[in-house]
Amino acid sequence: MADAASRLTALAEELLGEPLPVRIRAWDGSESGPPGAPALVIRHRRALRRLLWRPGELGLARAWVSGEIDVDGDLYEVLDRLAALLWERGADAKDSVHPVRDPKVRAFARGLLQVAGPWPPPAPPPEEVRRRTGPLHTRRRDKEAISHHYDVGNDFYELVLGPSMVYSCAYWEDGGTLEDAQRDKLDLVCRKLGLKEGDRLLDVGCGWGSMAIHAAREYGAQVTGVTLSTEQAAFARKRIAEEGLTDRIEIRVQDYRDVRDGPYDAISSIGMAEHVGTVRFREYADDLYALLRPGGRLLNHQIARRPEKDESAYRADEFIDSYVFPDGELAPVGRTVATLEEAGFEARDVEAIREHYALTLRHWVTNLERHWDAAVQATSPGRARVWRLYMAASALSFERNRIGVNQILAVRPQQGGASGMLLRARDWRTAPAG
């Protein structure tokens, strides 16, 4: 079809009722949209067929992973311009007419079909998670989900995360490098936990061992780290041996539900609870409570979503669920705190650090783009495109307060209710005896 870009722009603007904020460059060489704006490049009409057969984020994601759509210009600017249409309009439209019955949507779909052609799209890109069966968050299903995300090659993660090998929100106290900010985050966690020489620390979801190494090397803790990723465990053990800390750190490939060697003095859970799931979160809280000694502290570092007016209507992001974090679930921070307290914990501090995560993600995207060819070689073109899109979109989600991240410090009360905490706010030392 000649001038596909103009046709697509007209269809989109008729549906939206306002000018399209980006240019469209189509497979036939045509281009349309506001002069000087970044361009959404549609390399093949198959991208439109994917959107027709699977409307919404998943259809667009499949086209992106396949390389059938791309951007010409700054990726953040394109996502930011489209966010006002996709996110804010979507939020405002929740109580409006159902899309299938909306005449504008039906007209848009008919027009898109004429441009795209009637043929079905090819099979989804191979990076998509295989169809999952059985109940959510069983040990088998959780292990498969973790393997999908983390066992993609340590070389790839080294390129993205940098030398710190920390895959969670950094803490930007005084500027500096990503490595400085990740070190500051690990140290903040250790101070909140009140770690001291000889304390037993359980690091749940220990990743590549960075928290365990910092706690053992800087605070003299005896650390047990558990992960479901065999590749993470192998990498962590190698690092620990190189640091000469094998007498202080044990790394296990083990489900947190199978840890039985408490009590521990402290537990860190950094970026792991998102994998637990709503149906298992009380069990998670109960298990960690049972593993702590009275007076022991838990630091739960977890991404949170904004609460829904109707919580029963919450659905996980299709793109994230299919390509990034299978079976991952986000909960509002209030629900997380309430569940921890229902299990017996006393919540002592909640620190919101969502802006820190936006900055962290932007550094990861920069690392990926700087080492793009090596990242593609370490995984695949599709996988690298998935990570670039999800990290850039996530950075904007944190900046726009669509999602947040919080460090929740909780304590298992001692007999009589004592917490062992000092009266001064945000002084993370242990109270003196007596």
TrEMBL record:
GO BP annotation list: lipid biosynthetic process; methylation
Enzyme class: transferase
Pfam families linked: CMAS
Region (Disordered): 119-140
Alphabetized UniProt keyword annotations: Lipid metabolism, Methyltransferase, S-adenosyl-L-methionine, Transferase
Entry similarity comment: Belongs to the CFA/CMAS family.
Protein name as catalogued: Cyclopropane-fatty-acyl-phospholipid synthase
